[in-house]
Amino acid sequence: MKHRRLPQGSAAGVLGRADLRLIADLIEPGSRVLDIGCGEGILLEYLVREKSVIGRGMELSQEGVNASVARGLSVVQGDADTALHYYPDKAFDVVVLSKTLQATREPRSVLHQLVRIGRRAIVSFPNFGYWRIRLDLLLNGRMPMTPSLPEPWYETENIHLCTLRDFVALCEEDGIRIERAFTVSDDGSPRPVTSLRMANLFGHDGVVLLSRE
Fold it and tell me: Residue 3's pLDDT band (boundaries 50, 70, 90)?
């Protein structure tokens, strides 16, 4: 079945997810972009159409690959844990990993591959330090479910959840430069991280622009 292409319109109307809108804003027109875990290719198609990027994608599910190819995108099937080492150093201007890092088996290794393959990398992830998650654990004593973490613990693909502070600490430890960092608030608004403690408490998603030191 032919996949329906994205309608014309604003990023908010087309991309839906707030982290994807912020990622799109961070990418310069004409960039060479690799979108890892690209799903059905929604972000990648938007970038190709609206920002004239040279876009490539990698997706684990065959369904996602099929949907992306039906959009006219260059997407291959692959696993972020095992396939990234095939790409040469600095092959792309930007490598995107949106809401996928926490589902990888070796997130530390994946991060190093991102900043090797790309001159910059943009990573988004659910922030497990978000205050609603903390409160839910405190009051109910059960794994929380939120818009960013919608599945129950026994069905989720997420195996390495972290807080924003955890992510920053790993980057500092491993010599990965954080050029810019944002959180996404309850209303979907992006907020630059000025206080890590407050951002860790009030941002339900983190979006971070990385490069190799």
Answer: very low
Instruction: Kindly state the average pLDDT of the residues 85-112.
Output: 96
Q: Coil, strand or helix: which one is 13?
A: helix
3-state secondary structure string across 100-146 = CHHHCCCHHHHHHHHHHHEEEEEEEEEECCCHHHHHHHHHHCCCCCC
Q: Region 45-55: what's the mean pLDDT?
A: 96
Beta sheet of 54-59, edge-to-edge order: 75-77, 54-59, 32-36, 92-98, 118-126, 205-212, 176-184, 190-192
3-state secondary structure of 56: strand
Which two structure tokens, joined as six digits, stand for 151? Answer: 């599945």
Phi, psi of 77 (to 5 degrees): -85, 135
Closest CA to 158 of 167, 166, 150: 150
Q: Which domains does the chain have, with CATH numbers?
A: 11-212 (3.40.50.150)
pTM for the full predicted model? 0.90
